[in-house]
Design brief:
- The protein has helices at 6-16, 28-41, 59-72, 87-95, 110-126, 155-165, 189-198, 213-221, 231-247, 253-272, and strands at 20-24, 45-50, 77-84, 100-103, 130-135, 169-172, 203-205, 224-229.
- With 282 residues, it is α/β, with parallel strands linked by helices.
- It is built from ten helices and eight strands.
- Helix content is 47%, strand content 15%.
- Strands 1-2-3-4-5-6-7-8 form an eight-stranded parallel β-barrel, surrounded by ten helices.
- Helix 2 links the parallel strand 1 (20-24) and strand 2.
- The chain has one domain: Alpha-Beta Barrel (TIM Barrel), CATH 3.20.20.
């Protein structure tokens, strides 16, 4: 199937009430794992890589592999820059052929976030590339008690932001957090429903790892159309390596990487089965 924009995928998800998995990859094993599960389950897919990984991996090579995998896949795939923080990072992703970029200005003041997101959206749209913005603070909390009203997105602010930036999707802070949870999430479904009825673009959940199936289902009913998964894929890879070495300390690298791929596939499959996206490939 053709490489598509994230806007196309998320508009369909919003219309048909499901969520697309936004899975970040960091090597060939995780790339293969995610695409193979999407094809197996016939699900649309957002295949991403965050800007912070640029300094750890050979992104020129990995992005070319992502592009090739998407073009030959049997399901629609959007290539996405996750958490782009700089103009340079966003432009690199566009040059690599990504069909979607995220500018994360959530750590900036509202006006600075709006100004920079608006400029990136203007450039990206002129090239046919979708844009995701972020409002609120989806941080890394030591305790779920740190998630409070001040961290959540207010509907009137979200409406103003979307109207002025023209983003295609909006990541909103409604009680999840990045990284490993210490305690459970504090999802505010009523706020999520307010946001969904106030703004006219698909909503995105960051910090989506380790929620319950019921949490995902309620989030989708309340307006979420994409759930980002990254931490749990990395954890699944690490857990797999530790388990294999515990069984056989002389296991070679090729065996370990084949098992990593299997472990990541199992993790990705569990998430996709919770997103109501099975057989939704268009």
């Amino acid at each position: 199937m053709a490489l598509v924009t994230m806007k196309e995928l998320l508009q369909d998800a919003r219309r048909r009430k499901y969520a697309v998995g936004g899975f970040n990859v960091f090597n060939f094993e995780t790339l293969g794992a995610v695409v193979e599960v999407a094809e197996e389950l016939k699900t649309p897919l957002v295949l991403g890589i965050p800007e912070r990984l640029f300094k750890f991996v050979d992104v020129d090579t990995l992005s070319a592999a992502m592009n090739k995998a998407a073009q030959r896949a049997s399901v629609p795939i959007a290539l996405h820059l996750d958490h782009g923080y700089t103009y340079e990072g966003v432009m690199k992703a566009i040059r690599w052929g990504f069909t979607s970029v995220m500018f994360d200005g959530s750590a900036l003041s509202f006006e600075d976030n709006l100004k920079r997101t608006k400029e990136i959206t203007r450039i990206a749209h002129s090239l046919g590339v979708s844009v995701e913005g972020e409002l609120g603070y989806v941080g890394c909390y030591d305790n779920n008690k740190d998630i409070n009203e001040e961290n959540l997105v207010k509907p009137e602010m979200a409406h103003n932001f979307v109207e002025r930036t023209k983003v295609d999707a909006l990541a909103v802070a409604v009680g999840t957090c990045h990284g490993i949870y210490r305690g459970g999430p504090k999802l505010n479904f009523s706020r999520l429903s307010e946001l969904n009825s106030t703004i006219d673009v698909p909503l995105v959940m960051h910090g989506g790892s380790k929620l319950t199936k019921e949490d995902y289902q309620s989030s989708i009913k309340s307006g979420i159309t994409k759930v980002n998964i990254a931490t749990d894929m990395s954890m699944a890879a690490g857990d797999t390596i530790r388990a294999e070495l515990a069984k056989n300390q002389s296991a070679n690298y090729i065996h370990l990487m084949s098992m990593v791929k299997k472990g990541v596939k199992d993790s990705v499959r569990r998430y996709m089965l919770s997103f109501d996206c099975i057989s939704k490939a268009i």
